[in-house]
């Protein structure tokens, strides 16, 4: 069952773009949200996701996820749910593809290091930097900076995780240019994109964690969410080899989470009585989410992944070394700002100079950051395996 049409974002009713484009040559039959998606796919920042950490730093193994493959998988899950709910698939896909554009090298560890290094310049957060990229730093058009995305796409990128009470400078700056109503909830499309992200990394990190040998299946099966799916797989396929069972585990996990979200979202929408998109923004809660049972199971699974994968003995020293690389590079460029490429040097004052350093570092891929550190600072100590 799809939701009422009035709850879906309509490109014909968009609040538009910051810069008028009526004088541009025709670009075919695409609507506004389709153009947003395509601008994201063709951006430099999107291409750089190919060499940015998802779980493993600069992985040599072709089978491990990186930010790019993760974003594509999120988009597949998000678009599937948007279609089932009758929401705008193109806006959902655009938000899924762009949600991680602002990540610096080395994932959340790199983000923490960059935030600390830029404390006196307002800090750093990847959501705010995503907005900075699409409104300022990407520059494919002659008449303006940024990708000139629609208000609805910018709103979804800013608020896909919910209202933003205390935005850091990059998001505050973007919001000052275009009021994104940071205190309200976003569209259902943005809420779908957010939970598609959770579904993707919960299940795909299980896959990568088991493939790497860091996660232990026997310990993982103690988690209620995994236990009931594993028991069902063994019942259905008692003679199947372990490798295929693990693939089935990931596939079944995604499918059951998606089904749960669709059912729960329909219930919440009916119970809330929302009739318009403005009602959704003022609902006071997310209307897209897991059922109470699955929410508890998913939180427990996340705790297991943090303890046994992200903060494991195998990955913790790698994260610490990656953070050292980012911190060292930030300090080097603070001391030698003339070493920055010309396009990243800022002449508007100390704060802007430091933010230019942050912009440059955030755009680095894992491999580029490692190479610059080796060239400018000294050797790095990262294992070849991950």
UniProtKB/TrEMBL annotation:
<feature type="domain" description="HD">
    <location>
        <begin position="67"/>
        <end position="202"/>
    </location>
</feature>
<keyword id="KW-0378">Hydrolase</keyword>
<dbReference type="InterPro" id="IPR006674">
    <property type="entry name" value="HD_domain"/>
</dbReference>
<comment type="similarity">
    <text>Belongs to the dGTPase family. Type 2 subfamily.</text>
</comment>
<feature type="region of interest" description="Disordered">
    <location>
        <begin position="1"/>
        <end position="31"/>
    </location>
</feature>
<dbReference type="Pfam" id="PF13286">
    <property type="entry name" value="HD_assoc"/>
</dbReference>
<feature type="compositionally biased region" description="Basic and acidic residues">
    <location>
        <begin position="18"/>
        <end position="31"/>
    </location>
</feature>
<dbReference type="InterPro" id="IPR026875">
    <property type="entry name" value="PHydrolase_assoc_dom"/>
</dbReference>
<dbReference type="InterPro" id="IPR023023">
    <property type="entry name" value="dNTPase_2"/>
</dbReference>
<dbReference type="InterPro" id="IPR006261">
    <property type="entry name" value="dGTPase"/>
</dbReference>
<dbReference type="Pfam" id="PF01966">
    <property type="entry name" value="HD"/>
</dbReference>
<dbReference type="InterPro" id="IPR003607">
    <property type="entry name" value="HD/PDEase_dom"/>
</dbReference>
<dbReference type="InterPro" id="IPR050135">
    <property type="entry name" value="dGTPase-like"/>
</dbReference>
<protein>
    <recommendedName>
        <fullName>Deoxyguanosinetriphosphate triphosphohydrolase-like protein</fullName>
    </recommendedName>
</protein>
């Amino acid at each position: 069952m799809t939701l009422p049409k009035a709850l879906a974002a309509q490109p014909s009713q968009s609040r538009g773009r910051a810069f008028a484009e009526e004088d541009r040559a025709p670009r075919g039959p695409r609507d506004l949200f389709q153009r947003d998606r395509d601008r994201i796919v063709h951006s430099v920042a999107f291409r750089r996701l190919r060499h940015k950490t998802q779980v493993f730093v600069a992985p040599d193994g072709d089978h491990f996820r990186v930010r790019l493959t993760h974003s594509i998988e999120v988009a597949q899950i998000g678009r599937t749910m948007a279609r089932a709910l009758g929401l705008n698939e193109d806006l959902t896909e655009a938000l899924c593809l762009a949600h991680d554009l602002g990540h610096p090298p080395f994932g959340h560890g790199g983000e923490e290091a960059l935030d600390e290094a830029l404390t006196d310049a307002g800090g750093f957060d990847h959501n705010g930097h995503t907005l900075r990229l699409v409104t300022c730093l990407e520059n494919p058009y002659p008449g303006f900076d940024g990708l000139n995305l629609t208000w609805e796409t910018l709103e979804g990128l800013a608020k896909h995780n919910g209202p933003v009470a205390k935005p850091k400078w990059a998001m505050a700056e973007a919001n000052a240019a275009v009021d994104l109503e940071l205190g309200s909830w976003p569209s259902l499309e943005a809420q779908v994109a957010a939970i598609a992200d959770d579904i993707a990394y919960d299940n795909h990190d299980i896959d990568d964690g088991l493939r790497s040998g860091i996660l232990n299946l026997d310990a993982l099966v103690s988690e209620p969410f995994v236990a009931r799916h594993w028991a069902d797989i063994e019942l259905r396929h008692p003679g199947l080899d372990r490798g295929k069972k693990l693939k089935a585990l990931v596939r079944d996990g995604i499918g059951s989470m998606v089904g749960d979200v669709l059912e729960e979202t329909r219930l919440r929408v009916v119970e809330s009585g929302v009739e318009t998109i403005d009602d959704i923004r003022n609902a006071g809660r997310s209307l897209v989410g897991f059922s109470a049972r699955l929410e508890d199971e998913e939180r427990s699974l996340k705790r297991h992944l943090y303890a046994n994968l992200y903060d494991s003995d195998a990955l913790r020293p790698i994260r610490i070394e990656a953070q050292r690389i980012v911190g060292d590079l930030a300090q080097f460029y603070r001391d030698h700002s003339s070493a920055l490429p010309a396009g990243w040097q800022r002449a508007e004052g100390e704060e802007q100079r430091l933010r230019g350093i942050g912009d440059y570092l955030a755009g680095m891929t894992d491999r580029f950051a490692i190479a610059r550190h080796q060239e400018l600072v000294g050797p790095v100590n990262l294992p070849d395996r991950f």
